[in-house]
UniProtKB/TrEMBL annotation:
Segments traversing the membrane: none
GO-annotated molecular function: S-adenosylmethionine-dependent methyltransferase activity
InterPro entries assigned to the protein according to its UniProt record, in alphabetical order: Methyltransf_11, SAM-dependent_MTases_sf
Protein name: Methyltransferase type 11 domain-containing protein
Entry-linked CDD domains: AdoMet_MTases (cd02440)
PANTHER family: METHYLTRANSFERASE (PTHR43591)
Source superkingdom: Bacteria
Methyltransferase type domain sequence ranges: 54-149
Length: 268
C-alpha cells in the first residue's frame, strides 16, 4: 500500500474532511467545456430512475443528492472510509432519503443481488486490490445491474505532472500520482472478466493565466508525497512549483492545462 491506497493515511490526510476535495472540484470546474460528472452519470442512468443505488467512496454525497433531486426514486446508499468527508451528505440524509455508512469498497456490508446500480466516482485509484472491488460489486449487483465508473486518464493534468517531475528532480520528493496506478486505460482489464462496458472519454482545457489557481490546487496534494514533508520542505516545494509554472507561462503565452478522464458504463 502507498499513501494513495492506505486507508489510514487517506482518512487522516487528503479525505479527513471535504476541504481538499472542494478545492479540486472548483479547479476542475474552470475547465472548458465544463464536465459535470454527476450530470454525466444522470444521463447514463436516465432509463434506470427507479433502481436501488450504491455509491462506493461517495465522499460528500453530492452524486446521490444530485440524482435524488433529479427524480431518481430508488433506495440510495453511500459508503466511504472517511466519516469526516461524508458529513455534508449526512446532514441532508433524512430530507433526501439517503443512507451513509462507514465501510470499505473491498468489503461491502451488503448481501448478494442488493443493488441495480453501483457508482464508483473517482475512487478506484485508492483501492489496494481493484480486482477484489470488482468481485464485491458483482456480488452486490442484481443480474443485469450496472456499474458506473469515473476515472482520470494517464494523460490527465500534464502541467501538474511536469511540475511534480521537476520537484522530484530538484529535491527527490515524490508525489504518488493515483492516475498512474488505476486509470481510464488500465481499468478495462479489471472490468473485462466480469462486465461488458462502454467508455465515454472527455478532454477539457483551462488557460493558465495566473499561478494562484494552480498553486491552490497543488496545495491539496501536500499529504500525497511518498514520505511526509517537513513544513520547511513543503515551503520549498511550493516556491519551486510557483517558479516552474511562472517559467512555463513566460515561455508560452497560451499555456493550457488539460483534464482528461472518462465515464465508463459496465453491464453485468
Ligand atoms: C476523490 S474522492 C471522490 C469522492 C466522490 N466519489 C466524488 O467523486 O466527489 C475519493 C473518495 O474515496 C474514498 N475512499 C478511499 N478509499 C476507500 C475505500 N477503501 N472504500 C471506500 N471509500 C474509499 C475517500 O475517502 C474519498 O471520499
Amino acid at each position: 500500500m502507498n499513501v494513495q491506497t492506505d486507508p489510514k493515511k487517506l482518512v487522516t490526510g487528503q479525505y479527513k474532511d471535504t476541504k481538499p476535495l472542494n478545492i479540486r472540484q472548483a479547479y476542475n470546474d474552470q475547465f472548458k467545456p465544463r464536465i459535470d460528472l454527476d450530470e454525466e452519470i444522470r444521463k447514463v442512468l436516465q432509463n434506470d430512475k427507479t433502481g436501488d443505488i450504491l455509491d462506493i467512496g461517495c465522499g460528500n454525497g453530492n452524486t446521490l443528492i444530485y440524482l435524488r433531486k433529479n427524480g431518481f426514486s430508488g433506495k440510495m446508499i453511500g459508503i466511504d472510509i472517511s466519516d469526516g468527508i461524508m458529513q455534508p451528505g449526512k446532514k441532508v440524509a433524512s430530507e433526501c432519503h439517503l443512507e451513509f455508512q462507514n465501510a470499505s469498497a473491498d468489503n461491502l456490508p451488503f448481501g448478494e443481488n442488493t443493488f441495480d446500480i453501483v457508482i464508483a466516482r473517482h475512487m478506484l485509484y485508492h483501492m489496494p486490490d481493484v480486482a477484489k472491488v470488482m468481485q464485491e460489486v458483482k456480488r452486490v449487483l442484481k443480474p443485469g445491474g450496472k456499474f458506473i465508473i469515473t476515472l482520470n486518464s494517464m494523460d490527465n493534468k500534464p502541467i501538474f505532472n511536469h511540475i511534480i517531475q521537476k520537484i522530484k528532480e530538484k529535491f527527490g520528493f515524490v508525489i504518488v500520482r493515483n492516475a498512474n496506478v488505476i486509470n481510464t486505460e488500465n481499468i478495462q482489464r479489471f472490468l473485462a472478466p466480469h462486465f461488458s462496458f462502454s467508455v465515454y472519454e472527455f478532454r477539457t482545457s483551462y488557460p493558465i493565466e495566473s499561478t494562484s489557481p494552480f498553486i491552490e490546487y497543488f496545495k491539496t496534494y501536500q499529504t500525497t508525497f511518498e514520505r511526509e514533508l517537513t513544513e520547511s520542505e513543503w515551503r520549498d516545494v511550493l516556491t519551486e512549483a510557483e517558479r516552474e509554472l511562472s517559467s512555463l507561462m513566460a515561455k508560452d503565452s497560451n499555456l493550457h492545462e488539460y483534464n482528461v478522464g472518462s465515464v465508463i458504463t459496465a453491464n453485468l
